[in-house]
Amino acid sequence: MGSPLLPTPIKQKNMKKISLYIMALLTMGLVACDEDFAPTGVPQTNPQESLIQVSDITVSPIATSINIPEIIGSETPIDIATVAVKEGAMPANTILKAKVEVSNTEDFAKSVTLDAQSMANSNVVSILPSELQRAYFDGITHNPNTKNVYVRTILYTVTNATSDATNNAEAIIGQPGDNYFDTHTVSLTPVDEKGIVIADKYYIVGTSNNWGETDIVFDHSDADVYDDPVFRVSFPATKVNDVRVDTEFSIVAIDDLTAYKNGDKSVAYGLGDNDLLTKGAETFLGMKEDKADLYSVTINMETMECTVTPLQEFAPYVYFIGATDGWKNAEQRLYCANVYEGVYTGYIYCADPNGWGNEFKFQKVAGDWGTELNSGTFAGAISGDLADGGSNIKATAGEGVYYFEMNLALNTLKATRITNMNLVGDFNGWNAADDAQQMTWNTADYCFEITGAGVTANGWKFTANNGWDINLGGDINNLVGNGSNLSVVGTTIKLYPTRRNNDNIVCTVE
Question: Among residues 465, 493, 495, 464, which one has the least CA distance to residue 478?
Answer without folding.
Answer: 495
